[in-house]
Design goal:
Largest sheet: 4 strands, antiparallel
Number of helices: 11
Order of helices and strands: HHEHHEHHHHEHHEH
Structural class: alpha+beta
Oligomer: single chain
Distance between the termini: 27 Å
Radius of gyration: 20 Å
């Protein structure tokens, strides 16, 4: 069986965590690296990931957690808060410099001016996405959700349980983590760890709409 398909069929949303079973350093590093490598529109990478791994760090987040997620934030060994940059245009120089450093533009590309074309296309794309009243906030959040999808599937493939934590007061998270001063805004969080033995969601059959209901071949 395709291992990715198998992981998608096996994984589920954990409801209860075993606080005494932490992630290893290697597991956490690998999952954070997968987040770093996630794709994004125009390669803008608008995200920053805040990792709460200690009881003290998780306790800081509690005032921003809605009641049905309190246990998960308290018991899950790791909480990752996804934040996005507010000024996406300011990120362009950093992204362009990193692509050059990483060898995305060889001598031939530079000689032909291809690197300048790519940079102008990205600049125009960012300007277009940020032209609306939300100044690109929705676009940036959409990219963060792409990274979240990578994280959920990777965790499932690694045998790590996960829960998407949309039940947060994100403006309060901004305040707790002092994100406005960093030019960022929290948009999502995710719990990571290993399920408790009494997590009944682990034994419930996965339920999705039938293939024919969600796929149309044109």
């Amino acid at each position: 069986m395709n291992p990715i398909l198998e992981a998608a069929r096996r994984r589920y949303t954990a409801k209860h965590y075993d606080a005494k079973k932490p992630l290893t350093d290697e597991e956490l590093h690998d999952l954070l690296e997968i987040l770093r490598l996630a794709p994004s529109s125009l390669n803008i990478q608008p995200w920053h990931f805040y990792v709460a791994r200690t009881p003290e760090a998780r306790a800081r987040l509690m005032p921003a957690v809605k009641d049905f997620n309190l246990e998960r934030v308290r018991e899950a060994p790791v909480i990752i808060v996804f934040a996005v940059e507010r000024d996406l245009a300011a990120r362009l120089d950093e992204i362009n410099a990193q692509e050059t450093k990483d060898g995305r533009f060889d001598a031939a590309a530079v000689a032909s001016g291809f690197d300048k074309v790519v940079k102008e296309v990205r600049k125009g794309g960012v300007a277009a996405y940020c032209a609306g009243p939300d100044k690109g906030a929705v676009w940036a959040a959409e990219q963060a959700h792409i990274a979240l999808g990578f994280l959920l599937l990777a965790a499932g493939a690694m045998g790590v349980d996960a829960t998407t934590l949309g039940g947060m007061w994100f403006d309060k998270l901004d305040e707790i983590l002092e994100l406005p001063a960093a030019g960022r805004h929290a948009v999502m969080a995710c719990a990571l760890g290993h399920r408790a033995l009494d997590d009944s969601n682990a034994v419930r059959p996965k339920s999705r709409l039938p293939f024919e209901e969600v796929v149309t071949f044109l």
